Amino acid sequence: MFTLVVIQVLNATICLLLIESALSRPAAFVLKQAKGIQQTHRHQIKPVGKQLSKLNSRFCSLRNMASLNINAIAEDETRVYDVLAKSLERYNIDGTENEFIIDTIEQSSLLIQRLGSEALSHTTSNETEEYDVATDDGARDLSSSLRSLSLLSLSTSRHLQSLIYQINNPRSKKTSGNAWRTLQSVVNSSLDIKNADVESTAIALSILSLGIAISTTDTDVGNAQQKMIASAIFPNSPSHIFERETCKVETGSKQERLIKSVARDTLLQLLGTVVEENGSIDCIARIETAFGVGGEQDKELCSAVANLVKDIFGSGCYYFDSLNNDDEDEFFGTELDINKDKASPTLALVAQCRPWEFIKTDKLVRIAAADLDLWYSAELVCDASVASVTSNTNTEKNLMATNYPKLKASDKISTQSIDSSLRQDTIAHLATRALIDTALDLRLYRRADLFASKFYAFGGAERFAEARFLHACETITKVVKRKQPQIIEKQIARIDECVARVSEDLNLSDVDEHKIGIGEVPIETMPQYIRDFALRRLRTSNMSAAASRLANLWGMNYEEDPVVLAEEEKRRQLTYVQWNDEGSPGNIAGKSQPLPDLISNAVDLAEEFKVLLQLGETVGFDAEWGEDSGVAVLQLSTVSHSILLDIPALSSNDEGCRALQATVGQLFAGLTGARYVIGFGCKEDIKRLRDSPCSRSVHWFPHNNCAARDLRPLIAEASPSLGGKGGQHLGLSRMTESFLGKQLDKAEQCSDWCQRPLSTEQREYAALDAWACAAIHAKIAKLIGERYKV
Predict the structure, then answer these.
(1) Where is pLDDT greater, at 632 or 177?
(2) Under a CB-based contact definition with an 8 Å cutoff, are residues 577 and 637 in contact?
């Protein structure tokens, strides 16, 4: 009895070792050996005694895993074969080029086999594999040759994954670098074969077949490994495969036609199934880049890319699903749930294939930049749109995004002038303006300046002036805080250069009414305004010596005489809205009201919020933030009462979070007596309110179905001459002047909103910003009636 037990234990142990070995080895080894293991151990081993029960359970579990692995590999091999077979069938419908195709496939198979063997030689298994590749000695069959190529491609991709896994385990920066260098060496030595008796077409087909094998693998497993392998196999630069030294063929030759035809049809098939089968979009984008088969003229491929955009970004970006396509519902309702890893390569495909007539490119750019923070990808889409528009003109070649270091601003304005012969609603105009406006809305002024400079000919002179002006204000504020006034001179020079260029392009000297510009400050007044702004900042920071030096340099009078300062303040009061102006919250029925203090505790919030809503009026709101993701100050105001909330202080404890949920949360959920909740260009405000800290498990701000609305569409509908069209960026200060008679002073916009306590100027600016939204809404409602309610 004891001998029998020992024998069964040994048998079961051997079975476990065999199966575990198979599961740990490369996939192709599993495919060949695991079936034999199943046959050998088909009969269940009967355990003798309790000591064998756990061993038997583990054996059955591993056997099931082996079966699943085999089935998955078989399915992947079938997918690779089907894609290649259908693509070749379309190219070779009459079968006249069978011999040429079989020769190419066999050479490709030998190359891939060499790559697989080279990869295996770097793994600890040291396993060598032999596959039957058809030769001239036997019957040559297209189907069997293609089946062999498919299996080799799939197994080799698994070998490469095993290579990365073994070198990269345990994972670290050093091991990742070693894995990449080893992978590059293996691929280059196997595929980049110079002076060898291998057709260039075979090398190209090998790369394509490997790409198919990688792209059909489920991206939930080994996604990083897939990207690394794809990077090694496909060219690193955006050049076509035939520009590589080892793949050069004659343009228009039979070899080039074969590869391009197969590559195009492969892309169509992969695009049609990639979402359903959870394949690698990144690999598909690399295939398109490598073989260069996409383009605006290929409507079938453009339609397939557009369908992918619809699947990844939602139907709102797809032209043929526009029945319920309200941007505001999307912006302020349920947040978009988009996979960023899939969105980036999808945008790359859009830039390469350019399916402009099927998608809403401007909306796609906004989502990519604002919601996903994929600025580089959004910029590439804009580059492609510009290239499409300028391809048939004599303008210089457009600079692609890769020519600009990330986040590096440039003093150089695009040499392209505004072409008045072009329609102003081309795809390039819509896309680039969306990109610039998004950066402005998010107050990323440095980035907006870069984009407006680069896309000057399409974004327009006014956007460029606004972006550069706001970037200069932001920079001056920062350098004054750091006690570096010497940098101010360069910012002033950049504004002078900007205004000179824009004035020439817009012929401002011929304009009678000096109100040109879409931003907060008219363009022709920017040089004077930026100088006054810099001197005020220096005076506030007690840097009088620097202010006096700059004033002398600019030929301005800088005085600290109280009388002179009082006169300057009087001029400002005539130009800008003041807290105690008639009709403002600081002057109700002739009674002066103090500026609101910053609320930082739950009790004060509850009391002030009750006063805010007592008349059931429209509530305007605005938010200020610093470098963190959340909001620093939230401003709420009706036409008669304003409050300022210290969000970091209130959200730092449970009591404050409960108070925020009962007040601000209810207001933005539409559950209070407020008539409307109105902001101005407030999408980013809403996003940052949702991202603000919260000490409780349930956030105080509503995640979905936000009741807030943007004032800009209402202004555009009520006054098209002010609102513009095409999503033009609007300034609240200019809108306040148009509807209420005075501008808002935006000097504090770029100040430090995280500092405590806030200055008097900051508190006045913050309160008036929110009040202006409510006041403009009330004025429009009075002028045009309730049919324009938001």
Answers:
(1) 632
(2) no
